[in-house]
Structure formats: structure tokens, C-alpha cells
Design goal:
six-stranded parallel beta sheet, four-stranded antiparallel beta sheet, 6 helices
Length: 231
């Protein structure tokens, strides 16, 4: 990563559907008003939106304060010269983020990049929420294109595995880090496990099961939120 070169090519992977995502990002940036506190989501679409927001802030001299949802986005904000705060000090007037899947009832799977706990905290704290997605993210049923990420206390991996196999008949798997031995660890020190979904439970029942399973500290399942979609 070349932190000093913040453009589309600086994102660590190739950005799919980039023209659509760029148009979405530019529409999002039009929402900013002087004095706004904005929750900044993670992922490639949010990254493009952050660049569009930066350009508008600089061209119009707006004062905007950002609440990032990951260390990576916080670093981008710093390099762009954007003011940053935390949920301890402030609350977002509105926030934006991407999604991995959105179903017809506006339930979502988020957090493929592993930042789903901070994403959920900022999403819950915001007075208004905007989701940035292209048409590929809309699904009839959660789990069709992405597994559900779980943040698990490392000592509880076997416990979580056994309970979910018992309750769902499906075994969650520890996400491989690829470039290192062992699994992927979140910024909060949780191990990421990915759970395949078959639609046997409603989103609300699944949420209830997961959040009452000892050892699961967070999930990428977003249920019951009101938000606007820009697509």
C-alpha cells in the first residue's frame, strides 16, 4: 500500500464494477453538509466514497468530522487530512457503508473485510444510515453469495463450532489468513469464523441464536436497521 497515493489504484485489490461504484460514491458525497459528523464505512465502495467526500470537502471548504470503522479507513482519513473522532467523543449525524448482501427485507451480511464489529457500532450509533451497493449485492436470501462472518473469542472456537453444528447442522470454519499461519484475527482480537447459511432460519431467529451462543462476540448479520440505499 502506497499511503501517499490515494486513488483508485491504491486500493489493495482490483475494484469490481468500478464505474458503477464511482457514480454511487459521487452521489453519496453530495449529502455532506458543513459541520457533519459522518461514520465512514469500510470496503472498496466506501473507499471511493471517502475520496469523493474528500474532494468536496477541499473544494468547498467544508468542516466534516469522520468516525472510521476500521484502522485502515482511519489511516486513509489521516492521509487525506480529514478530521477524525471516535464514538467515545461523538455520535455520527449519518454514516455510510457497503454491504456484501442485502435481502428484500433489508437484512444484510457485512464485514467480509473483518471490520464488522466497528461497522455495527457506528451503524447503530448513527442518526441516519446510507448503504452503498451495486445490483450484484441484492439477493433473495442471505447466504447465497457470501458466508456470514462471526467474531469468536479464540478460546471458544470449539464451543461455537459444536453448538452451531448442533443447532444448524452446519459447521463454521476458521477463516484462513493466507499469508500467515493460523486464522484471521480482527482488530478486537477475535478469530473470524465463516458460517454458510441455508435459509432454514429467519434473519431475526439466526441473530438470536448467534448472540446467545457463548464465545460469539460479534457477527456480520445486520437485522432491524432502517437505512437508505444508493445503488
Amino acid at each position: 500500500m502506497l499511503w501517499g497515493r490515494l486513488d483508485e489504484a491504491a486500493w489493495p485489490t482490483k475494484i469490481s464494477n468500478i464505474d458503477t461504484k464511482r457514480a454511487i460514491a459521487e452521489r453519496l458525497a453530495e449529502r455532506a453538509r458543513d459541520g457533519d459528523v459522518i461514520g465512514i464505512g469500510s470496503g472498496s465502495t466506501s473507499y471511493l466514497a471517502l475520496m469523493a467526500l474528500r474532494d468536496r470537502i477541499k473544494s468547498e471548504g467544508l468542516r466534516v468530522i469522520c468516525i472510521p470503522t476500521s484502522h485502515e479507513i482511519e489511516t486513509y482519513c489521516a492521509v487525506m487530512g480529514l478530521e477524525v473522532t471516535t464514538l467515545v467523543a461523538s455520535r455520527p449525524d449519518w454514516c455510510f457503508d457497503g454491504a456484501d448482501e442485502v435481502d428484500p427485507d433489508h437484512n444484510m451480511i457485512k464485514g467480509r473485510g473483518g471490520a464488522f464489529l466497528r461497522e455495527q457500532l457506528v451503524f447503530a450509533a448513527a442518526a441516519q444510515r446510507v448503504i452503498l451497493v451495486d445490483k450484484s449485492k441484492f439477493v433473495e436470501q442471505l447466504g447465497l453469495t457470501h458466508d456470514l462472518p462471526l467474531g469468536v473469542v479464540p478460546e471458544a472456537v470449539e464451543l461455537v463450532h459444536d453448538r452451531l453444528v448442533s443447532e444448524l447442522g452446519t459447521a463454521p470454519t476458521v477463516r484462513s489468513a493466507g499469508g500467515k499461519d493460523g486464522g484471521v484475527i480482527t482488530e478486537q482480537g477475535h478469530l473470524i469464523m465463516d458460517l454458510a447459511l441455508d435459509g432454514s432460519l429467519s434473519a431475526s431467529d439466526l441473530e438470536r441464536l448467534l448472540l446467545t451462543t457463548p464465545g460469539i462476540a460479534a457477527t456480520g448479520l445486520f437485522v432491524g436497521y432502517e437505512f437508505e440505499i444508493i445503488s
